[in-house]
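Internal tracking record. Fields below are filled automatically when a chain is submitted to the structure queue. Please do not edit lines marked as system-generated. If the sequence contains nonstandard residues, flag them in the REMARKS field before resubmitting.
Queue: standard
Priority: normal
Entity type: single polypeptide chain
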Amino acid sequence: MRSLFWRILASFWLALALVAGLSMLLGRVLNQDAWILSQHPALDGLAETWTRHYEEQGAAAAQAYLERRKDVSRLNVQVLDDNGQPLVRGTFPPRAAAYEARQKNEKRLPWRRLTTDYSSPQSGETYLFVYRIPHPELAAWHRGSLLWPLSALAIALVVLTLLSLLVTLSITRPLNRLRGAVHDLGQTAYQQNSLARLANRRDELGVLARDFNRMGARLQGLIGSQRQLLRDVSHELRSPLARLRIALALAERADSDQRDKLWPRLARECDRLETLISEILALARLDADPGAAQPVDLAALLRKLQEEAQLNTPEQRVEIKLQPGISLCGWPDMLERALDNLLRNAVRFNPAGQPIELKAEHQAGELCLSVRDHGPGVAAEYLTRLGEPFFRAPGQNSPGHGLGLAIARRAAERHGGRLVLTNHPEGGFSASLQLPLTPQASL
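SYSTEM-GENERATED OUTPUT FOLLOWS
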């Protein structure tokens, strides 16, 4: 961070300093005559005062004024009319004029020659003033005249340095906080309040901090859920493995007749273990990249689920209610697995003689895929926990492992939707996948 800090600070400072310094130097180099004419004290008000003396008091008074100015400032002045003829004798000696005429290179002259014209506001006449300032006098004035520009430049540089420092700190400090947050996230010790102040900013860094907060919270949640899933998986796998170990131990000590009675028990435990592993793998596959979304044939998907449910449980009746004109883009295998789990739960608790409703309809700009049974429902205090891996509501004797609703919820989230679980007002339990019509794969 130190290197970046000084690079940014030096870049801002040097850029501003160079622009200010070069602007001043170029201005003076390119416009030295204008600079001298406007700033030299010996020329201040000379043209106006001379014109007033000449027009009001005559040529003698105007000549006397020029001679007085020369005694004070060593400034030689000539005043010419429109035809280039001198109006007064002036203070520039004829021999000096002849010497100036012989010199082809003006830089060799011991004075600097400046010209400017002045229009009288009273008479409207235009006068051409020719000034000759000796180089020693001009150099002394230059040394004095540079004090205030240099002072102003020094003050400007101090102000620009402070501004550059503030700009640099406003960039590097948020980046330093983001670096710390990234480090904490890598160490699984991320705290959302570490970027709270930065997230309140209304610039791009504030937007970045808010996005990083959401990402960090999501990753922390995923890490926590994965850890909890591993703990739950290890706990759930112990039970069938322990029963298998006990059954195998009994089979080793039993005679042939008793061993034949234990084989079905071993087969059941193996089937349970295989089912559990299949559901865990199905839940893990939902976190993989599903690929591109594709059109889903809802009618064919619902009919397939209906046929499989009635084939496995002929005593149950599944009714399909498909609203016309419904279309969806998504991932058919994922939806089929989610709806199959919801339908299996409904079959498990639905009383015989009552139909299970499998519906697809529009609700408030979303697609609702719902499964409703007429069973006992679930206690209200457990509704919020349904869908957590390996959670089963107390009082329900279910052979499942608590992963069916978790798979359905994850499938809905992968489509950018949600799983809604409620007790139906007319009795029974309702599980709905609320999906956007154009789902986006979420993390």
